[in-house]
Structures are given as structure tokens and as C-alpha cells.
Write a structure and sequence with these properties.
This protein has about 625 residues and is of the alpha+beta class. The chain is about 25% helix and about 20% strand. It has two domains: about 1-345 and about 600-620, D-Maltodextrin-Binding Protein, domain 2; about 355-595, Roll (Dipeptide-binding Protein, domain 3), CATH 3.10.105.
Amino acid sequence: MGILTNVFARSLRRRIWVILPLIVVLAVACGAAEEPAAAPAAEQQQEAVPTATFAPQMIPQATAVPEAPSMADQSSGGQAAEPAAAQEQPAPTAAPAMAEAPASADPAKNHATVVTEAEPASIGMWSEGCSAEIHSMGCTDFVSDFLTWLDDRTAEIVPLSGVVDWEQIDLNRWQFNLRDGVKFHNGAPWNAAAAKYGIEYNANPENPSASVTWTGPFMEAEVIDDLTVHAVCPNPCPIYPRTALFADFQDPGWFESATEEERTLNSIGFGPYKIIGYEPGVNTQFEIYEDYLPNENWFAQAPTIQYITHTYRGEAPVRSAMIQTGEAHWAADIGFEEVDNVANAGGKTVSGKTAEVYTLVFDTVFHPELSKQKVRLALTHAIDCQTMLDSFFDGRIPCHNAISMNGTVGITPENSKWREYDPELARELLAEAGYDPANEININTRPGSNIRGLEIMEATIQFWRDVGVNANLNSHGDLGAAREVQNSGCGQFTNEPGYRDTMDCASREPPGPAYVSGHAYEVATSNEILDMQRFNNSRLSCFSRSSRHCTPEFEAWKTEANSIPEGPDRTKAMEEIAQYSYEQAVFLPFFEVVYVYGLAGDIEWQPYYAPRLRGNTMRFTE
């Protein structure tokens, strides 16, 4: 602890700065969207401790269409921008006075329709069906402003509407100064008490919150005064502001008094849009929140489109057709095959990586065969990954065998390379492991994980069968049912007596809501903070509901790594954890996800580096 204390003391004299890989946006049809204006300089500069940083060489160079785009600086017009120079950035950017949204002179431009690959299982911010995936925009990015935000245009961690600034005041304590005058959608005031409630709710592993897998569990918060709150971590948390990108808030009074059904059917945040209608299976409707207090940051700007409707279509060609016919103005993940079709109809497309890796998560705890390392290795060697992806993506997508994307602290060429396709070796490993074919190894899929996901999983099952594995595909047509399987992991035991001390997940029966082994479940798993801490706290954690890997020794190792400040020591620790995950074959990752978005010809929008849509960053052309 002495080393950490010395680093903290030195760090107080330095300003926070972050160098993150930025997304390249490639306009691949006529009429590229206009480049957004750069955010103004901060009006105030706040002394703070630096978060973990990234070396400039971690930003891959942009590639031209039709190759899959790389993470780099944002660009438009089909030309890749030069990577931003590493420079010291003050953080956070202070929130200025409220600006008003301009009214559209054309009534036809007061409403936009957006379409995603799946319907969210619920529209309640703190309910089981709300996730960090793009189809959950209606219970996250539209209605909520988070504790922090990563501006991928400037590489800064910035505040949205509810926060002025922050500073680290101890190894495990951060002070957040809140913005006066902010109100929830029901008129209740945003203050330190509401912030405390949200920070602690989001840190309970048993609650349906995405945030805990970034920040870590068991956080507390202290009210200092009406507009000052302290976030208190159970261990040193040197990069906490960067991990708070999913810490969202609702009016505690409404939430406490609402029924479970009401919590599922509404979200009372203070984001730029509010929910005004919901028809299950049809759409969700949103209207500008008239009391939203924007600030100078691009992602907290005043919204300009009065009404937004979010609808859902499972087939990519259908989503593309909606753009072509004018039925929709924005569509997620339409695929490279639809680029020309959209362009020929007068629309446009933009593409970029999403900070996701398309992956199978092996149940190393509850499954009798997948608990064997050699079985997991055999399943990887059985797959001819690159040939398979080339057939589905026309050579645009390379295989990637790490749980997080390139550019993540901890990911190296050595722990992300695909293992050799070797069916004979796979059979030998199965024999050495004493594989029993009476135990099925199934894949649990869900709607919309990837545009070619079902075909990829069908091919994977065949590869496994070819080496003698008894494998089957469970394709859950219902997103809620698929999430039940995913969320029946070790973290469900968190609040049971004695579990936090013993972490004896493997000695227990599979928990609910599914109460069975997850076998191998399919997911496009994201890492917006680009640090292995994300997976240390989620799919590798004894305290995450999505985890199927847990030992007390590994938990202590990860906790120590998360506590190390930025620099070579943290990088080395995260690389060792990623290498362990690779050698143990805890996951079977396939590739880094790339989305192609379809846009109407009169819509201006640039993709974020992650699969998220803030409605206030989309606008009609004049």
C-alpha cells in the first residue's frame, strides 16, 4: 500500500488525461454526414489524479472500405483522419449554462424513427431487460445522463448534464460536484442524495445494473452537502471516472414507490428524452425532455428532434429496406451487403467498430466437461475460424481470440491470436481430458448478437461434431429467456451468507433464474473503458451474474490488478490476467464486431466508438 500512497501523492499535482483509441467513421455511400463541431475548451481546470492511459501506438491505423474499419480518429467523407496527438487534457470539462434547442421549421423533421435488431426485454432503466446493448437505448442513452462519459472525439472523460466536475481525494474516494437545477423527468430534484442512491444501487451485484461490471461491486457513497457526493470504493480505484460510464440514475422516490411492473415499463432519469409511449412488440416513443439542461459537451447538447420512435426488426435486409423506403431514419447493423442498396435509394451508410468482441462464454464452473481446460482448448482447435469468417464476411473480418478488442490495456498479439485449426489435436485433447460424450455441450444463442450470428453458431456446432463432440444449438427466440441463461452465474450468490468470504461458487448448484449450466452462451461483449478491469469485474468475477469462472485466488489477483494506477505496472498486471484467460480458454472469442449503420439522406450522425445512440447527437440537415 505504500507504493500506491506515494503514487497518489505525486498524482495530485497532475491533471487527468486519457488517450483512448477513437473510432474511425467511414462514409461508404453518397452524401457523408457533416463532421460535428469540436467541443469548446473547458472553462475551468480541475486538479485531479490521472486515469490509466494508452500509448499512441495502440491506436490502429484506419483502413479503407471495403475493409473493416479500425479504431482511430473520427472522420467523414470516406477519408480516415490522422490519429490525434497525445496531449495533456484537463478533466472534467465544466458544465456551462443551459442552451436552448433550435426548433425545426419543417414539421416533417420533428420526428425520426430508429430501428434495431431486437426489442429490449424492458424499457425500465433498473430492470432485468435493460442492458448495455444498442437495442436498450430507450432505457439508457435516451433517458439517462450518466455520472461520466467518454467523448471519443476528444479522448476526454467529460460530465453530462448532472455533474460539474470531480477530483480524487483518497486512494479509494472520489468527490463529484453536482449541477444545480437539474430535475428528473417527473420534476424531482437531482441532488447528492439521489446520486448516493444511484451509485450504491448500481454497485450491488444482485441488482440488474450494467454499471457494476465496470466500476466493481460493493461501492458506497456519502452525501457531503446537497450538491456534493463522495463515491467510495472498497479498494483503491485509480480509474473510477472512466469506469462510471454506465452509472445511471433515477428518482429514488419514484423508484421506491413503484411496483415491479411500473419499474419495467418506465424510466425516470434526467436525460435528453423522456418516454411517452410503449407498445410491446411494436415500438417505444420518446419526446424531448423540456427541462433538460445541456452543457458544452457534444453528448450533452440540446436535442433538436422533437419526437423519436424506436422500433425493431430482426432481419438486416428489412432494416435496410426501412431506410430505403423512408420508413426509418437510422438503422443499426445492416451489414456490408446493404451498402449499395441504401446508396442507390438516396441514403447513406457509416461503419465502425463497436468495442465489442463476438464470443462464447464457457461454463467452467457448473458444466462437467467445460470445467476441463483441455476440453475447452479442443473446442477452439476444432474450428477453422478464418475460413468460416471469410465465407460470411467476404474477407473483411479477421479472427480475434481475446475477450476484449485490440487497444485494451492487457490485450497483446500473443494473447489474442487464433489457435491453429487442428482437428486431430482437438480429438487428442478430448481423449486426454476423458471427455464423456454423454454430456452434451450446447450453445445458447440469442436474437441479434451479430448479423451473421446464427450461421456462425451453426457452423461452430458442426466443427465440434466433426471431432466427436455431442453438441447442439439452443436458439432462444426470446431475448428475455436468453438473458436468464446468461445471468445465472456466480454473482447470484453474492448476498448469501458466507459467500463473500468463501467464493465457493463451484461447490453449489447452478443458481437462478435458469438453474442450469449455461453450457456455452453467445454474446457480443463490450469493453467501453478499454481496460481488462471490465472483465475482471464481470465475466471473470465471482460476483458477476454473467460469470462462469470463479476462484478465491483469482479474485484476489484481479482485485490487486484493478488497484494499480496507470502505467507499466498496471499494463503488465492486466496482460498477465489476459494471458491466463487465453491459456485457460475461459472464453471462445471469434472477432471484433463492426457495425454498418444506415442513415436517411437528410440525417446527420456520427457513430460512437461503442454500440450506443444518444438521440441528442442526431439531427436533420437544414
